[in-house]
Amino acid sequence: MSKSVIVVGTGNAALCAAIAALEKGATVLLLEKAGKDLAGGNTKYTAGAMRFAYDGNADLLPLVREQDDPRLPKTDFGSYTKDKFAADLLGFNDGRDLSPEQKVLVENSGDTMRWLASHDVTFEPIYSRQSFEKDGKHVFWGGLTLAAENEGVGLFEMEMAAVQRLGGTVRYDAEVTGLIEDQGRVIGVQVGDESLFADSVILASGGFEANEEMRVQYIGAHWDKAKVRGTPHNTGDGLRIALEVGATEYGFFEGCHATPMDLHMADFGGLDLPPSERKNYRKISYFLGVMLNAEGKRFVDEGANFRNYTYAQFGRAILEQPGQFAWQVFDSKVFDLLYAEYCFHDAHFVEAKTLEELVPLMTGVDAVQATQTLTEFNSAVDMTVPFDPTVLDGKGTRGLTLPKSNWAQRFDTGPYRAFPVTGGITFTYGGLKVDGAGAVLREDGTAIEGLFACGELVGGVFFAGYPGGSGLTSGAVFGRKAGIGAVC
């Protein structure tokens, strides 16, 4: 007799858990808090990029749908080894060793991508955001190369199609309000007044980023001002009901994925827009210019590293500035390098022919100090090093207390543009402790029988930041493990 599994959620992690459980012969029911139009959790809001370990083009090409893309023979994807992935994660650990969860992510990342491909989840190279043309070749940078076809929306649709092909069913408008226990074992869930029973329950309902009270409680006072980039339904429900049955908090609750976002965006990424357009409120080309706070001062090294490795921290840094906003300033020399979201129809910016005309247009900024900051920046740019956005080019500033380490260019070619930004939260880092099979653990290290978790609910994966594209991969890796663990 097949086992029955309830999966709470329909995002990437939930769908991967469902696919894995269905593969093992289980009967699977997915319960989605939202209606059908907002199903998919945060997955639909993403650009679909997935970071994983690979040794070269030969590992990537079988995952790419358009095998006849004329750019492929002229593309250098480089390599991204497990050691490099591990080193990148360590770079955000603030001195911590790799956690057990991070080791699992690194070790299983490549195999999980191939597993997804075996279920007709297809990918495409991220030419527009992760490569530059150099010497007639498309050169990828930062170890991030592939995204799901049609980005996050496509990932959701392809994974949902796999679930349905395998016989899984979904109920929408089905908010899980509690877990049902019998002698210490979880045997089902409550959906309002309705009791639903199963051999195992997998919590894949996201973090608490859409819960203002929990953001302030766990992350800090200014986080009530954060724009919620993703779904309004990730309000910490899974965390709450797991703690009620004895689970323990685990991971870095003060941390979260925070991204520079348009200051004037609506909360939840613009629910009136098609899902594929909601990501366009991001503003992550700051490395091509500078960011100024209300005091007219720079507050981060915009060129410290590729933006994959800095945007999560810089979104947080913006929220720590006076008024929780900043302005990103660009010279026209880089307009053609700015990501597409800077040309989005709802992008907010000011433009002027000269810096003297631009600065007063930057609402809320000390104009005198901003002018001084830009003048000093121009004088400090090292003009002996060529600008090269495909590498850490070392074209930095000299003599500034806060340097710009790479891609520093003078503001000397008008017109100039400035974009108002704030910090947007995408997902939280604190969650639950799970074992190698995805079972939720109590504080004493014993497993809560019948209860599993994956996705944002797995703590210990990220700390002070994360390399871009790791979140979806983590969801897939731990979702697959939870799906198998719930059946075996």
From TrEMBL:
> Which NCBIfam families does the record associate with it?
PRK08274.1
* The keyword Secreted belongs to this UniProt entry's keyword annotation: no
Record's InterPro entries? FAD-dep_OxRdtase_2_FAD-bd (IPR003953), FAD-oxidoreductase_2 (IPR050315), FAD/NAD-bd_sf (IPR036188), Succ_DH/fumarate_Rdtase_cat_sf (IPR027477)
The protein's name: Tricarballylate dehydrogenase
The reply on keyword Transmembrane is no
Going by the UniProt record, its keywords in alphabetical order are: FAD, Flavoprotein, Oxidoreductase
Superkingdom, natural source = Bacteria
Q: Name one Pfam family in it.
A: FAD_binding_2
Name the coenzymes or cofactors required: FAD
